[in-house]
Amino acid sequence: MEPPSPSTRVRLKDVARAAGVSTITVSRAFSAPEQLHPQTRQRVLDAAQAMGYVARQRPTGEENRRPVIGVINPQLDNPFFHDLACAFSQQGEARRMDVLIMDSHDSAAQEEAAVDRLIACGVDGIILTVISADRRYRPPYFERLEKAGIAVILVDREVTAPHYGGVYIDNLDCGYQAGMWMREQPVERLLILSGPPDSLVTIGRVSGIREAMAGSRITLEVNYGDFSMTPAEQFLEKRLDQPPLPDALIGINNQITLGILAAYRRAGLPLPGQPGGPRLFCIDGIACAELLGMDMPSIRHDLKTMATQAMDLVEDALRSGSRRGSRQVVRGHLHLPGETA
């Protein structure tokens, strides 16, 4: 059999595709075999032999390149996801990995386009926060990622699609902490502004609040809407025309809480925390709120820990080539006004 011509020579990425692994895994099979699981390395070697691939004897740029990880966020203008993206970037530098940050703008079409661009770039792994918090959400690009052998790590939102592990917030605990704080306050009517009713985030946080409120005399009212600011503001503008008004509110995330503040300001009513205003609790927290004189009780999350755990899962997936990634849960902590951390 004649050796392949330069135009048809088998490349590193061809072997990776055939073996169902990343290009960096193929490279390590020849340059650093001790870093791979023996079964993974043998699968690569078998594919390489069948295709006639010959590893170059001297290291070149392709074999020595840094692993490339794509990060797709649903809303980079949301401080939560912006800060999380910064944490991923810092983790990448510390681990000598290149990190590409992309924004899906809460659009299914742009999310799919971002995935396809990262596949075309030949990334080794993708850290993904999908646009939907519905566990049943499963866009077709997951099959393309699986076929390309790209390790997918889910963050914040969990779906039943092929992936190598995930890092999630303990939403039930977030709601429970918020509810327990509110239960100790002198309030009678609590309004919860939440996200979609079928969202796992909504279900967890609202369930936690209800659990904490069990047996109390506080009247609960829940509005199911959207996780963004404008719908919350629009709903609350109408609700503030219908007495009796709530004397306490919980915003299920930071964007909803901003909508609450905007609605009260537009209505000309005392803002939460001001004399005559309602009590307000924000799950997720609002970045730098204390600098604006709006420090409020909230649940804050250790984004550095979330980024570290997600990158650990990526590295494990690239090293082992297996789907043994775990489901890791991060617990938020209660922040009270006046605290510095």
3D structure, described in words:
- It is a single chain.
- The protein is of the alpha/beta class and 341 residues long.
- The protein folds into three domains: 12-63, 434 Repressor (Amino-terminal Domain); 66-169 and 303-331, 3-Layer(aba) Sandwich (Rossmann fold), CATH 3.40.50; 171-300, Rossmann fold.
- It is built from twelve helices and twelve strands.
- Helix 11 links the parallel strand 8 and strand 9 (279-283).
- The chain is elongated and about 75 Å long.
- Residues 1-7 have low confidence and may be disordered.
Which secondary structure elements does this structure contain, and how are they paired or packed?
Elements: H1 12-19, H2 23-31, H3 38-51, H4 61-64, E1 68-73, H5 79-94, E2 98-103, H6 108-121, E3 125-128, H7 141-148, E4 151-155, E5 166-169, H8 171-183, E6 189-194, H9 200-213, E7 219-224, H10 229-239, E8 248-251, H11 254-267, E9 279-283, E10 298-300, H12 303-320, E11 327-330, E12 333-335
Parallel strand pairs: 1-2, 1-3, 3-4, 4-5, 5-11, 6-7, 6-8, 8-9, 9-10
Antiparallel strand pairs: 10-12
GO molecular function: DNA-binding transcription factor activity; transcription cis-regulatory region binding
Keywords: DNA-binding, Repressor, Transcription, Transcription regulation
InterPro entries: HTH_LacI, Lambda_DNA-bd_dom_sf, Peripla_BP_I, SBP_2_dom
What are the main properties of this structure?
single chain, 341 residues, alpha/beta, 434 Repressor (Amino-terminal Domain), Rossmann fold, 3 domains, six-stranded parallel sheet, six-stranded mixed sheet, 12 strands, 42% helix
